[in-house]
Design brief:
The complex is a heterodimer of chains A (about 160) and B (about 800). Chain A is of the alpha+beta class and about 160 residues long. Helices cover about 35% and strands about 15% of the residues of chain A. In chain A, strands 2-1-5-3-4 form a 5-stranded mixed sheet. With about 800 residues, chain B is α+β, with helices and mostly antiparallel strands. Classes of the chains: A alpha+beta (about 160), B alpha+beta (about 800).
């Protein structure tokens, strides 16, 4: 079947099998490998993307269901070569180690800050509880998101 | 606070040596531009999938692959029979056993590899698995290690000639006679059995490989999730009979390892065979259930411990009998000489001379593995045993567990200290670390608060643990894996403009080597870390070494990096003597520069000397041009990091829910190269401790069915279970390491589980209950009816 969706502001039309998962569509068909595949059961959150501004685990939604919607992936988080404050926060506060869960948790964090620009640490912890990280023990992820909240308009590193 | 915080800064504002520095590798990960194995896409690439056994123990009667082969998108179906023809149906394990690649006779655990399909896409490959018809004849299972040696137990490894039982080995350490004597005359002896359940490292990235065999050149390139690319290359050469110089193993970005990615899995071998058979690159990525059910588990130690002491709490001896469940194949990854890993470091951090352990390992109908999950070759199990036993003793003596520990900790003047089982601890100041943890915790106030809470009927617990690790395996004379000595190579090359490339034999699964190793060289040579590219994870571009696990990168490869930088510095000195027309004896070093003693203006920077080394300067006799060096570092001993942990929990009496309120961790890993990275690693390990103590277990039923095959059932800690960690630090350098560092990657995973368990038991005021202390388990313990075998769904 044919699906059309907007991904990071660009419209794509592709032939896909009806059963194809969005995560595989993004990775294998569009080559957007920043979204990862981790568990198939919606538990780990490494596949988190935004659909119409909402964080969604792309391993449990079909590409066909995303047709007609606006998808935002990690590749669309930076703007004009400038890292999003969330990305900068993760760098400043060492919010990542292996980097595998990082795109997913940052997409969740961006959604949180869009909704609540100044969340306290308890709110942050609850918000990212659907994103599992095995490296950081979450402490620096929480700090990274707080950093982003405190630096909303920081000029980005374009490194 | 670190001992090295006054370092000069590079032009980019980073420390020229040790200190907090933002990681060089971050930018690609933050942009979604990491290059993980599943991100590798080659032209014409095919996809593989593994058919796995639904039974834990069953004879294969027949396999019919004809329907799968007829699938229009299928390119090959590989079975054990085909591999037998290639002499690849079995492969050696890291413990000198053999393991089935694709089953030829009978399956021995649920999830074992039976067939491999190669198809045009990953969905078609999975479809084709459904078309393979396998007839099984189910056999009785050994699902409980304690029944593995029963007279009527089915023999699992009838493939091994002459095998009449399920025993793998009996192994012991320590002086049994002396230990028995001490126990016979001790005033107090406390016995406690405990289980360290089977758990799984579960990195967020599962295991996989992309194999590409170029039939024209005979070159095999394999991108794979490996923590030990060089060791894997040699093993592929030995397993498949491929010439080693034609094999290139690349471990690109790895999404966490924790020991899960040390061994070679059948899927990797199948991907290689798939590429050889089809002539196309073949990708195989396991899904989460395959990862949890078939790849390297951790622990599964049943320990019967006994501690002897005087009535006033002086520990006299410790002994333990262990039953180790190794699964269906002995596939543990550890130095050859030590079949139970480093478990015999179980005497821990205390001063007594009588100790003995016996470890008996058995086959069961479960997946192979055992040494994984940041365990430092089973020091996790050892620390859990001793720290639980010390708390059991405190419980019986009605002593404060902190007081009991303080009374028995090794004293600073006892170092270097040889333990009753032969380890030589290099350095330590244990009482200082414990005092620091108690200071941060406000220990006395916590105990007062606990008294008040108890008076109100509330359950608050305070748990301690003190650990000593032995990391950085290891000295070649003692340590090898499959005959490969555990030394690490390192190469440093300065380009004419003074920029450098450092090639290391270890690789990163998130540890931040690209930053830390650049900082080591920066510290030694005064080259800004931004100007040093660290190359790793590619056997064609790095020197040989055994890889990253057992917290060995900094103790072994980090030492190699420091030593190779010193060699370059020494060579630069000879070049400086020519450039400055003076004797080498007249030269003095300040960071980044050789200059003439007494004439500081007259000098050359390392960058200038790099250019001179490539130029037309007349070099001293015997000095070759260019500025580079290579070393192989053979560590003289392990390094011994240590730490004191305190956990504070509140238990809900009604539900059994445990809330970890605070966790204080004081680690001593010697000087910290990048404190930010060190703290991050400790944070991660502390979360592991909460996971193991409270949530994680792989349970089985009596048919050997795995009951934790997805993240719906195998629970990992989230941000909600973890408190905001409180870290402290003491610094005791290793006397034998070139920069005094000790390694830290696994310290918190090793040290934290007993602190959490001790805290929960302290809240419940009971002597012992088994991990994981789930709400149900805690609730039952409150009702005085604890579960004794959490690893089995049916007791």
């Amino acid at each position: 079947m044919q699906v059309t969706m907007t991904v990071n502001g660009e419209e794509f039309t592709r032939e896909v099998e009806p059963r194809m998962l969005l995560v595989h569509f993004l990775r294998d068909d569009l080559g957007l490998t920043g979204t990862h595949w981790g568990c198939d059961t919606s538990n780990c959150g490494v596949c988190t993307v935004q659909i119409d501004g909402q964080p969604v685990k792309s391993c449990t939604i079909l590409a066909a269901m995303a047709a007609g919607h606006e998808i935002r992936t990690i590749e669309g988080l930076e703007q004009n070569g400038t890292l999003d404050p969330v990305q900068q926060g993760f760098m400043q506060e060492h919010g990542l180690q292996c980097g595998f869960c990082t795109p997913g948790v940052m997409m969740t964090a961006r959604w949180l800050l869009d909704k609540n620009p100044d969340p306290d640490t308890e709110t942050i912890r609850e918000c990212i509880s659907g994103n599992i990280c095995r490296c950081t023990g979450y402490e620096n992820i929480v700090r990274a998101i707080r950093w982003a909240a405190e630096h909303p308009a920081t000029e980005g590193a374009s490194a | 606070m670190t001992v090295t915080e006054d370092r000069p800064l590079s032009p980019a504002g980073n420390p020229m040596g040790f200190g907090r520095m933002i990681r060089k590798e971050d930018v690609r990960f933050l942009r979604g531009k990491g290059n993980f194995v599943d991100d590798v896409n080659l032209p014409g690439m095919l996809h593989g999938a593994v058919l796995r056994s639904p039974y834990a123990h069953a004879r294969i009667v027949s396999i019919d692959t004809s329907a799968a082969e007829a699938h229009p998108k299928v390119k090959a179906v590989i079975t054990g029979k085909i591999l037998e023809g290639l002499k690849l149906a079995w492969m050696p394990t890291l413990s000198m056993d053999v393991q089935s690649v694709l089953c030829t006779d009978k399956v021995r655990f649920q999830g074992q590899e039976v067939a491999f399909v190669v198809a045009e896409d990953r969905y078609a490959a999975r479809d084709a698995l459904e078309l393979i018809e396998v007839e099984y004849e189910p056999l009785p299972t050994v699902y409980d290690a304690r029944k593995a040696l029963d007279a009527d137990a089915p023999i699992i490894r009838d493939d091994l000639e002459g095998r009449t039982d399920n025993k793998i080995y009996d192994w012991e350490a320590g002086d049994k006679a002396k230990c028995d004597e001490v126990f016979a005359s001790a005033e107090v002896v406390v016995k406690q059995s405990m289980i360290y359940p089977r758990v799984h490292p579960a990195p967020m990235e599962t295991c996989g490989a992309v194999a590409s065999m170029d039939k024209v050149t005979g070159q095999l390139t394999i991108w794979t999730t490996t923590q030990a690319p060089h060791a894997h290359r040699t093993l592929y050469a030995l397993v498949a009979g491929l010439p080693e110089h034609k094999i290139r193993v690349i471990s690109p970005d790895i999404g966490g390892g924790f020991g899960n990615k040390v061994g070679i899995y059948p899927g990797y071998v199948c991907a290689i065979v798939g590429s050889i058979v089809t002539g196309k690159p073949v990708k195989w990525m396991e899904d989460r259930s395959e990862n949890l059910m078939s790849t390297s588990f951790a622990r599964d130690y049943h320990m019967d411990g006994e501690i002897a002491a005087t009535k006033d709490g002086k520990i006299l001896g410790l002994r333990v009998n262990v039953l180790a469940d190794h699964g269906a194949f002995n596939g543990v990854a550890q130095p050859t000489k030590y079949p139970a890993g480093f478990f015999h470091i179980f005497t821990g951090s205390y001063d007594y001379s009588a100790a003995h352990c016996n470890v008996r390992a058995v086959y069961t109908n479960k997946a192979p593995g055992g040494v994984a999950y940041a365990c430092s070759f089973r020091i996790t199990e050892a620390v859990y045993l001793v720290e639980r036993m010390v708390d059991c003793l405190a419980f019986e003596l009605k002593m404060d567990p902190a007081e009991l520990r303080m009374k028995n900790l090794l004293r600073p003047e006892q170092f270097p200290y040889t333990t009753p089982t032969g380890w030589e601890y290099d350095s330590g100041d244990y009482p200082r670390a414990l005092k620091e943890a108690m200071r941060i915790a406000g220990y006395d106030d916590l105990r007062k608060e606990q008294v008040a809470k108890r008076a109100n009927g509330e359950m608050m617990g305070i748990g301690l643990s003190f650990f000593t690790e032995g990391v950085g395996a290891g000295p070649r004379k003692h340590m090898d894996i499959l005959g490969l000595g555990m030394a690490d190579g390192c190469e440093l090359r300065l380009h004419p403009t003074g920029k450098a490339q450092l090639r290391i034999s270890v690789q990163s699964q998130g540890q931040g080597h690209e930053t830390t190793f650049a900082q080591i060289v920066a510290q030694e040579l005064g080259i800004p870390p931004e100007d040093i590219e660290v190359i790793h994870g590619d056997t064609d571009n790095t020197p040989f070494g055994l890889g990253t696990y057992g917290s060995r990168s900094t103790p072994v490869s980090g030492a190699a990096a420091a030593v190779v930088a010193r060699r370059v510095k020494d060579k630069a000195k000879l070049i400086a003597s020519a450039a400055l027309e003076c004797s080498v004896d007249d030269l003095e070093w300040e960071q980044g520069r050789w200059f003439v003693k007494g004439d500081p203006e007259k000098g050359k920077t390392i960058q200038e000397l790099a250019f001179a080394a490539h130029g037309n300067l007349e070099l001293p006799e015997g000095v070759e041009g260019h500025l580079d060096a290579s070393v192989v570092y053979d560590p003289p001993n392990l390094t011994y990091p240590f730490g004191a942990y305190i956990c504070v929990v509140d238990v809900d009496k009604g539900t059994g829910h445990v809330k970890v309120r605070r966790f204080i961790a004081v680690d001593d890993c010697g000087p910290r190269i990048n404190p930010m990275i060190v703290e991050g690693q400790i944070h991660g390990g502390l979360a592991d401790g909460i996971g193991m103590a409270l949530m994680e277990v792989m349970a089985f039923d009596e048919n050997g069915n795995h009951l934790g095959g997805s993240f719906m059932d195998y629970l990992l800690p989230t941000s909600m279970e973890c408190p905001s960690w409180e870290l402290g630090e003491t610094v005791t350098p290793s006397p034998h390491h070139p920069i005094g560092v000790k390694g830290v990657g696994e310290s918190a995973t090793v040290g934290s589980p007993p602190a959490v368990v001790n805290a929960v038991l302290d809240a419940l005021q009971i002597r012992h209950a088994e991990m994981p202390l789930t709400p149900a388990a805690v609730w039952r313990a409150i009702q005085d009816n604890p579960i004794s075998r959490p690893d089995l769904a049916i007791e």
